[in-house]
């Protein structure tokens, strides 16, 4: 009976630990698409339009242009970048491509997703996707791992036929992240994001020629983590508790009923 109560307490503790971990595995919530959603894109890294994760950004442009957006990504997140390009009724075959760069301008490989697609002549739209690797809390200097900081999206058409140069197009992008939890935790972390990003700002009444580059204030909704805590500590603690309970249960099963009543003391 005592052993059954011990197992019940262990199951309860395990359930409490699994609940937050399961919640972390769902895609992270982001700001609403309504209100303040960007309606234009930059034309270079320095003029990239800042967007939050979970926010749908739109932009109008011309085939052959480079469209840039930037977004923050923190340790433990696995960002997914999606884009839809709407094309005019009449056009030749076009190949569109989406690339993601970190704050050091290093192109980040996609784990999977249709990073490049060709829209046949007359196709109304083309959809692209890029699932990045999980952002690490720190990395070796020689590695190309994604680190916490600002990331840049570049959308463009490649090998565009001359007849389609300058035709109007519209694009929309959205970034969502899945929190990978303790499975992606590593020992050590960065005290600050790798690159906070650069944006172009101008004061009231200033002309575009007087705009200057400043550090971006955009960051994840809950701020930069850069801490030692992860849910791996929870699982480590639960493992220790279960090991202790297993030891107690094993002792209770093997210790026996004590000295039989018919055996005199000292025998």
Give a brief outline of the structure.
The chain is α+β, with helices and mostly antiparallel strands and 267 residues long.
Features:
alpha+beta; six-stranded mixed sheet
Explain what you see:
The structure is a single chain. The protein is α+β, with helices and mostly antiparallel strands and 267 residues long. The chain has 2 helices and 13 strands. The chain has helices at residues 2-24, 231-254; strands spanning 49-50, 56-62, 67-73, 77-86, 94-102, 107-108, 110-112, 116-119, 125-132, 149-158, 168-179, 198-201, 212-215. Strands 1, 3, 5, 6, 8 and 10 form a 6-stranded mixed β-sheet that branches. Strands 2-11-4-9-7 form a 5-stranded antiparallel β-sheet, with no helix packed on it. The longest helix has 24 residues, at 231-254. It starts with a helix and ends in a 13-residue tail after the last helix. Mean pLDDT is 77; it is low at 9-34 and 202-206.
């Amino acid at each position: 009976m005592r052993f059954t109560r011990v197992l019940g307490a262990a199951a309860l503790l395990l359930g409490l630990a699994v609940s937050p971990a399961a919640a972390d595995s769902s895609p992270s919530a982001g700001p609403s698409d309504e209100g303040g959603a960007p309606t234009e894109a930059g034309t270079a890294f320095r003029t990239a339009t800042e967007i939050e994760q979970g926010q749908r950004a739109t932009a109008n442009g011309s085939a052959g242009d480079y469209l840039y957006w930037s977004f923050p990504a923190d340790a433990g997140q696995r960002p997914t970048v999606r884009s839809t390009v709407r094309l005019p009724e009449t056009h030749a075959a076009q190949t569109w491509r989406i690339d993601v760069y970190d704050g050091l301008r290093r192109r980040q490989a996609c784990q999977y997703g249709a990073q490049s697609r060709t829209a046949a002549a007359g196709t109304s739209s083309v959809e692209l996707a890029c699932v990045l690797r999980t952002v690490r809390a720190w990395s070796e200097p020689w590695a190309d791992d994604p680190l916490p900081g600002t990331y840049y999206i570049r959308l463009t058409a490649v090998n565009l036929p001359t007849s389609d140069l300058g035709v109007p197009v519209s694009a929309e992008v959205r970034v969502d992240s899945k929190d990978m939890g303790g499975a992606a935790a590593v020992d050590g972390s960065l005290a600050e994001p790798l690159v906070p990003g650069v944006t172009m700002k101008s004061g009231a009444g200033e002309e575009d020629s007087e705009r200057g580059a400043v550090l971006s204030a955009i960051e994840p909704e809950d701020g930069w983590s850069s801490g030692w805590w992860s849910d791996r500590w929870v699982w480590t603690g639960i493992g220790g508790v279960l090991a202790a309970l297993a030891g107690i249960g094993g002792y209770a099963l093997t210790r026996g009923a004590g000295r039989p009543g018919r055996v005199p003391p000292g025998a």
